[in-house]
Amino acid sequence: MSKNIFLEGVLAPLFLWLFFTTCHALADTAFDPILVNDGIMPPKEVQKLTQMGGELYEKTRVPVFLAAVADLNSTRPIDLIEKIKQQYSTWILLYFSKVPTTVNIFSSDDARNLADFDQILSPLPWRGTIKPVMSPAFSKNEDVKLEVAILNGYADLIDQVAESKGVSLKSSIGSGSRDTFMLIRWLFYGILVLVIFQYFYYMRKKRG
Q1: pLDDT higher than 50, residue 41
Q2: For residue 192, how many other CB atoms are within 10 A of its CB?
Q3: Which of 11, 1, 15, 54 is nearest to 31 (CA)?
Q4: Could you give the C-alpha distances from 116 to 12, 20, 157, in angstroms and in order?
Q5: pLDDT digit string, tens, across residues 166-184
Q6: What is the C-alpha separation between 172 and 188, in angstroms, rounded?
Q7: Which of 18, 71, 85, 131 keeps 20 to 30 A from 137, CA to CA?
Q8: 147 contacts 42 by C-beta, under 8 angstroms
Q9: What is the C-alpha to C-alpha distance for residues 174 and 195, in angstroms, rounded to an integer?
């Protein structure tokens, strides 16, 4: 009898500890940063985005969500924000809409200083990491532009939050990849400016 009481006294707390530890671990692995993906991002990119967002949340407890919607009117950011607020006090949401073309970053008040939202959303080619890619000058393929813009912008946002929290991410695409992308973008805009210059030079010479 005393042996059974002893075992119950030892095993019961142990089982409770294992239960709550397992639940906590499952809760961590279950975090999915992709709130909506209306077929905009292909599986390979979704996997990479999920990996980056999951690692950041695991190390900082800051959830950075992504919504890539086909129609703004069908999935409004305000509705997504209300759902996020029900579970998280600190949060960031990167929102994309294909029709009409819209991009914005929303966050809780305490998360606004974790990344430079204005820089990420800047339309300037040498500053922004999203809108310059979405311009007609970058590519004629709308799907490609959107995929690159989302991956590039989300990665930039993730890395800035990680840096603010003083952590490093194994899943980060790295500054090297972004620098290469920046170089390609500069070369593209440089060629575009050269073509425009040559056009006006030719027109002026023709008139002269």
Answers
A1: yes
A2: 12
A3: 54
A4: 49, 37, 8
A5: 999 999 886 444 554 555 5
A6: 25
A7: 71
A8: yes
A9: 32
Bridge partners of 94, per DSSP, are 66, 105
pLDDT digit string (tens) for 95-150?
Answer: 999 999 999 999 999 999 999 999 999 998 888 999 988 877 777 788 888 999 99
Question: For the purposes of burial, counting CB atoms within 10 Å of the CB of 4, is it exposed (0-12), middle (13-18) or buried (19 or more)?
Answer: exposed
Quick one: tokens of 47?
A: 């996997």
Q: CA 33 → CA 59, 111, 176, distances in Å?
A: 14, 16, 24
Tokens (6 digits) for 177: 């990849």
Which pair of structure tokens corresponds to residue 166? Answer: 């003083």
